[in-house]
Amino acid sequence: MSHEETRGTATPGPAGGTAGRIGVYFCRCGPNLGNLIRLGELEDPAAWPSAADVATHEVLCSGDGRAWLAGRIRDRGLERVVVAACSPREHEQTFRAVLAAEGRSPFHLQMVNLREQVEWIGGDAGQVTEKSRRLVHAALRRVALHRAIPSVEVEVSADVLVVGGGPAGVSAALALAHGDRKVVLVERERVLGGLANQLDEVFPQLECASCFMEPALDRVLHAPRIEVLTGATVERVRGAHGAFRVEVAIRARGVDPDACLGCGECGKACPAEVPDPLAAGLATRRAIGLAYAGCLPHVSAVDFAACRRARGEACDACLKACAFGAVTLDPAPRARALDVGAIVVATGAAPGEVPPREGVLSSYQLERMLHPDGPTAGAVRGAGGREPATVLLATPATEEDGELAAEEVLKLARLVRRRLPGAEVTVAGGLERIPSLARRTAALAREGIRFAPGALAGGAVEEDGGRPALRLEDAGGERLEAADLVVVHAPSRPAEGTAALARLLRIGTSDRGFLLDRAASPFEPTATRIAGVYVAGAAAGPRPIARAIRDGAAAAGLVLASLAAGERRPLEPLAAEVDEALCGGCGVCASACAFGAISVRAGEAKVEAVLCRGCGTCAAACPTGAASARHFTRAQIAAEISALLAGGA
Amino acid sequence: MAHEPRIVAFLCNGCAYQAADRAGQAKLAYPQSLLTVRVMCTGRVEPAFVLQAFREGADGVLVAGCHPGDCHYVDGNLRAAARHAVLSRALEQAGIEPARFRIAWASATEAERFAAEVRALTGAVRALGPLDYRARALDAVEDAIRLAPHRLEAIEERVGAPRAPGKPRVAFWWNASCGGCEEAVIDLGDAFAALVEKVDVVLWPVALDFKRRDVEALPDGGIDVAFVNGAVRLTEQDEWAQLLRRKARVLVAFGACAHTGGVVGLGNLSEPQEILDAAYRAPASISNPDAVLPGQRVRAAGHDLSLPTLLSSALPLGAVVQVDYTIPGCPPSPAVIGAAVDRILSGDLPPAGAVLAPNAPLCGTCPRRDSRPERIEVGALRRLATSALDGTCFLAQGLVCLGPGTRQGCQPGCVEAGMPCRGCFGPLDGVRDGGAAMLSAFASLLAGGEDDVRALAAALPDPAGTFWRYSLAAALVPRRPRKGGPG
Distances in Å between the alpha carbon of B228 and those of A253, B236, B240, B271? Predict the structure, then answer.
């Protein structure tokens, strides 16, 4: 019955939580106020019997005006003030400071926006004056219910969570650590480097990927300010910029990383064979061992889904094989809670797949084949494991993957041409007609790479004379172009877990499922709609490695510029409260909170003030009145509504 | 000067309030119809605020915030959109045109868009005319009762006779109710036998033959406790309420209908004339050639007969007389009745006005409480009769369960029997409108983007009847405004 309790009582006694004398002050704002509104009618103290003082100043926000207001508060012993002037967005802080300087709570102020939202709209003077009267009346009723809110400061966290250890994440982590920030780098896989480190040579200069990735990964692993968690996923994110609380789940490695030297003896002894996730379906690996030779961190890990002992068999082959006692086979996952101020998401993309077929490879499968540590140790193989005499490469993904798709196909054509000097290498799909690629395709043509005329008709692999083929169309009609080996670069996909992470972080995704790096302005590249959350690299859509690295550095720069180490910020004064006596632990408030600031424990909702932003959504959702929003309480708003509508027509 | 509509506007601090400031700075001319309440986020706007505004004289209500995706608090505006979508359907059921309640998005820079929204809403409300809810709905109720001459007697101060010696004299009475509350008294079992031993029953029409004149013959204050169940729907029920109030030292509203109007209150979604037509004229099984309605005199068997007439709406008992205590529930549970009766008869009386059941929500004792996920998100609505359900929290499964906002006391009740709570025990102390509160709670759980939450809200069957199943007559907007305007 909150609104009925407060109706008709301008200054409730202590039961309403408040008491004290109230002043009502009008400002003429120089020539701005009072031309339309008949301030003369409103200034009459007889119109405001519940006010202890009513007066008008020419320019209340001026030094003279503020001193005048301070004097009236002091001399008349006022506890609360209504200022009928401009928008509170303009001068609420100004007049709060006057109250605070006089030893009153800065929250004992209510402003009436007579300038922007009444006078300047125009209209009939009588009607406008009547509306102004209602607004002042409502402010008087409301301010009587205001409560003092103590100011509390907390230190923000300047630490940063980087999700994803590919080129973008590594770039961000290194730049941040260089900027004296503590970084926690969370990587889903057991190894760092992402897709980039699984490639042999990268475009456009055919640089050796591991030559630039591995030194960077090594720096990440040895930087004292960077903590690396591999086999780890983000499970929960709460809070906001400056105060995120993140829960991370870490899969068991089954090997003590401090004792393991990465000799690989455990893998040689392991009898359990499983498909190698890095061999793109072309080879197998053991249930324990290194992900690949030279992987970083250079530590074995157990695939518990494949481990025979984990499945109940009496196997201790790896335990016996390890000379360092590093194998623990402890399957217990761990959880970590992190307090960070910002989050850089660099989870990358997953390579496009093509339906498995003899003599057909995805571009990623070919990349792995070309890698000296790959499933064929660098040899190119077509149907039946034979070296192909003809190789056809194409991509239907120039639209989706942009620069990446075309460059990838041209690079692979060049690498295959080198690896198989005797083979006929053909690129189909019209890349040579893309103006920005014309010079490069012409150079490749001079090297002996053939460009088949026509556009891809669909891009699905068909069959022609027992060999895989692609359908091409040009002015002359459609035809099939066949080869011993067909390589297709299909559109990249969001990395595993991207959708779940987007939900946790409340950032949007594109139609294809990539994270939206919708910056508030072009001057904040990688920023998302959530302050303090950045998206770098291919997590925001397919892009070349060089651009991913630049994204990581850009995100790091924005983090460094927006969060200072040791900075203190006031705790949200409007943070919600929950009256535990009325709380049934239904969880509606916690579900409505966008910041995860409320959790239900032991049947009662608890607000973590450091995570709360004070929007009041929980208070509106709570069905028992247990949750309330400071300075926007049910009683305050209800009193305001009643007063706005009270009396007259 | 034409009547300028009064529109209560809830503007969010992040966007819409700034847009309004910008409109002023740009000196855009737009109607002075807004009476603005600034909130940090539209997510703060409770449906109860909207209902309060209509009840207290607003012709329209505007909720304006940041565009979806731009909310300064991530998605408070989507919570507002969901509540708006459900509430505007309930308002339409209650006879308040959806055009009077608008939600709009305007970024801080969109001054012209903001002004255009105000123009559009003001124009729409102007075309509909003043709502004048109080005059058209609430006063209609007051008129119907105020004109009854017997009420003049009730205005006189009650002067109770000294309490008569001997056993407490107890009355049971039923107004507009189904008889379930009477059944609940019988269901006390052995406790009922003990109760009858302890008291003198002076009125109980369901069991004993007392007449109205017997009660009238009692001195004022001659009944120690009167338990009255049922809503007040007929003039005769109002008369009985007045009579028992005069005769009883303690008047107890017994059951959901007396407490908050109960299911009888859902009749307030129809005009009295529609109800009478449906009962006495339209049904094919009714033979009423002269189209006689209650209140009209009929000559039969040598007597002039008439039936009591309908009030313009159903009312909780507390709306026509002062109620000392309330025993909630449809029906009240044996445990709640037993405890309340013991308390009253022993003279261990709580402050007047108290509801005699625990002031705590049902979730606290729900057998499914441990299955509630950390975040409840309703991405699809389910229904009890047609959906495959498991033993977990009903809300988490997409069913409307009013347990979060409903008082305990029913146990074992619906949730123990595998049904979501329907709210018969009413809200907790201090919650003015439990239906509005639960509408807000449930709408706040709808998941997805703006289109998703609107689609879910549109698919929710009968929002007024769902959230105010037992409490419409006591709601902030408790009945349809009369057609054709006030007067």
Answer: 70, 14, 9, 26
Interface-testing mutation among B22, B41, B393, with chain A (most A C-beta atoms within 10 A) = B41
Q: Judge whether residue B296 has pLDDT over 60.
A: yes
Residue contact B40–A632, C-beta within 8 A: yes
d(CA B88, CA B139): 23
The pair of structure tokens assigned to A361 is 């490879």
Q: Is the pLDDT of residue A574 over 70?
A: yes
Structure tokens at A293: 């030779």
Report d(CA B209, CA B200) in Å as an integer: 14
Find chain A residues with C-beta within 8 A of B44's C-beta.
615-617, 619-620, 629, 632, 637
Instruction: Give the position of tokens 């409560």.
Output: A147
Place of tokens 């556009």: A455
Q: Give the Cα separation of A177 and A220 in Å (integer).
A: 9
The token pair at A172 is 């961000």
| C-beta atoms of A594 and B76 within 8 A | yes
**Contact status, residue B23 vs residue B64, Cβ threshold 8 Å:** no
Name the DSSP letter for residue A255: B
Q: Read off the pLDDT of residues A461-483 as tens digits, 9 standing for 90 and up.
A: 999 999 999 999 998 899 999 99
Torsion of CA B24, B27, B29, B35, to 10 degrees: 20
> Can you tell me whether residue A535 is helix, strand or coil?
strand
Instruction: Identify the pLDDT of residue B146.
Output: 61
Which region among A429-433, A612-616, B13-17, B91-95 has the lowest average model confidence (pLDDT)? A429-433
CA–CA dist B96, B88 (Å, integer): 8
CB contact under 8 A, B437 and A622: yes
Q: Which residues of B touch A629 (CB under 8 A)?
A: 40, 44
User: A526-529: which pairs have CB atoms within 8 A and are 24 or more residues apart?
Assistant: A526/A344, A526/A551, A526/A554, A526/A555, A526/A558, A527/A558, A529/B69, A529/B70
Q: What percent of chain B has pLDDT over 90?
A: 80
Minimum distance, in Å, between the CA of residue B214 and any CA atom of chain A:
38
A chain contacts of residue B440, beta-carbon cutoff 8 Å: 620-621, 623
Is the model's pLDDT at B345 over the cut of 90?
no
Å between B141 CA and nearest CA of chain A = 19
Minimal CA separation from B8 to chain A, in Å = 8
Confidence of residue B162 (pLDDT cuts 50, 70, 90): low
Residue linked to tokens 């205590």: B325
Q: What one-letter code names the amino acid at B255? A: G
pTM of the model: 0.85
Q: What number is the ipTM of this complex?
A: 0.95
Mean pLDDT rounded to a whole number for chain A: 92
The residue to which tokens 């997590």 are assigned: A539
Tally A–B CB contacts below 8 A: 221
Question: What pLDDT does residue A18 have?
Answer: 45
Coil, helix or strand at residue A463: strand
Q: β-strand B169-174 against B200-203: which pairing, if any?
A: parallel
- Give the nearest chain A residue to B432 (CA atoms): A1
Instruction: Name which of B44, B52, B466 to mutate to probe chain A: the one with the most chain A Cβ atoms within 10 A of its Cβ.
Output: B44
Q: Which residue in B has a C-alpha nearest to residue A643's C-alpha?
A: B56
State the smallest CA–CA distance between residue B192 and chain A in angstroms. Answer: 32
CB contact under 8 A, B8 and A613: no
pLDDT for residue A9 is more than 50: no
Of residues A124, A126, A641, nearest to B56 (C-beta): A641
Return the closest-CA partner of residue A303 out of A260, A344, A274, A278. A274
pLDDT-based confidence at residue A5 (cuts at 50, 70, 90): very low
C-alpha A550/C-alpha A536 separation (Å) is: 8
Residue A137 phi/psi, 5-degree rounding, is -55, -45
CB atoms within 10 A of CB B406: 32
